[in-house]
Design a protein that fits this description.
Elements: H1 14-63, E1 64-66, E2 72-74, E3 90-96, E4 105-110, E5 131-137, E6 143-151, E7 161-168, H2 170-205, H3 207-221, H4 236-278, H5 285-312, H6 322-336
Antiparallel strand pairs: 1-2, 3-4, 3-7, 5-6, 6-7
Length: about 350
């Protein structure tokens, strides 16, 4: 069973690693952007919701008046038509706060949209004119955002009234949900487009490596002797270095062939002498054979040494240990000239 290749190991596809990195980056970036945009939009809608309630509360405060019988009434109707439609989700209410003369009465005035319901806010008496915000729930279970203000009319300064304006929180959640849906589709389309562009960029960017691979296959098959063609600036130095290696190897092979030919010519003479001596009896034959074999051995050693020296010349990564040779020479010279 072959060993498993790690996901980001050296043998893994460069194309896959680039695509995975791009996918992770696009996903994280779009997720952060979507979260930020959704939060900003919800914050904007909530601020707009509060601004609308404050405007309606200001209008309600300006319309509050007291008649001759000491009863509150509105001198002008509210401008928002939803306040006149039952259970529209937008409401106002005026509570009379109790004092020493008479008890409090919730809902002494209220919008038609409340119908028979009465808004109940947490007990408390904020300073006159100050706005308090609440989250309340109606008897039907609807969640409302409410603001209140305590006022004392000039016609009845001893009597305080609580003015309440409320609206359903769906005015915040529904626009936010619609926006989030459109945002998800938009960011999804953007992410798909970016991913498609990244895929195209990776395949186009790595295309020169495929061409380099085909050139190397041609060199291996022997159809060409070097990598040909123009490559991008980032790949061209690699191509030039590889062509230098191929050229150096070709020179080594040519030199080896020359050395082999020289060696053949060098030992041809001793072999001819041995062949002639073997064709006739001669008492000096053993000595002659030994001399010619020694001569042939010297030629072989000489050409082998030259081949080794030429083969290692200019080869990348080859190093010659100079210090041991110098130490030996120093010891010899020290003994000779002592």
């Amino acid at each position: 069973m072959p060993p498993l290749t790690p996901l980001f190991g050296p043998a893994r596809s460069l194309r896959i690693r680039l695509l995975l990195g791009t996918l992770v980056w696009i996903t994280v970036t779009i997720a952060i952007a979507g979260w930020g945009l959704a939060g900003l939009f919800r914050q904007h809608v909530a601020q707009q919701f509060r601004t609308t309630l404050v405007a309606q509360l200001d209008q309600l405060t300006a319309s509050l008046a007291i008649d001759q019988a000491g009863q509150p009434f509105l001198s002008a109707p509210q401008s928002d038509p939803r306040l006149r439609r039952p259970y529209s989700g937008v409401y106002w209410q005026i509570d009379r706060l109790g004092n020493a003369d008479r008890p409090g009465l919730p809902g002494v005035l209220r919008s038609r949209s409340l119908w028979d319901d009465v808004l109940k806010v947490p007990e408390g008496t904020p300073p006159d004119g100050a706005i308090h915000e609440h989250r309340i729930t109606t008897a039907e279970g609807a969640h409302l955002g409410a603001i209140e203000r305590i006022v004392s009319p000039a016609e009845q300064p001893e009597q305080s009234y609580r003015l309440i304006v409320a609206a359903t929180t769906t005015l915040i959640t529904e626009p936010a949900e619609r926006f989030n849906g459109m945002l998800a589709w938009s960011l999804g389309a953007l992410g798909s487009g970016l991913l498609a562009a990244a895929v195209a960029q990776v395949f186009i960017g790595l295309r020169p490596l495929g061409r380099l691979r085909r050139q190397l296959a041609s060199v291996r098959e022997g159809s060409v002797h070097a990598i040909e063609g123009d490559f991008p600036r980032e790949v061209q130095p690699l191509v030039d270095d590889f062509n230098d290696v191929l050229s150096h190897n070709a020179r080594i092979v040519a030199h080896a062939r020359t050395q082999a030919g020289n060696l053949a010519h060098a030992i041809k003479t001793p072999l001819s002498v041995l062949a002639n001596a073997a064709s006739r009896p001669d008492p000096r034959l053993p000595q002659l054979v030994a001399e010619q074999v020694a001569a042939a051995q010297r030629q072989v050693d000489y050409h082998l040494a030259r081949a080794r020296a030429a083969g290692s010349t200019g080869v990348p990564g080859v190093r010659s240990p100079v210090r041991p040779v110098l130490d030996s020479l120093l010891r010899v010279m020290d003994h000779v000239y002592r």
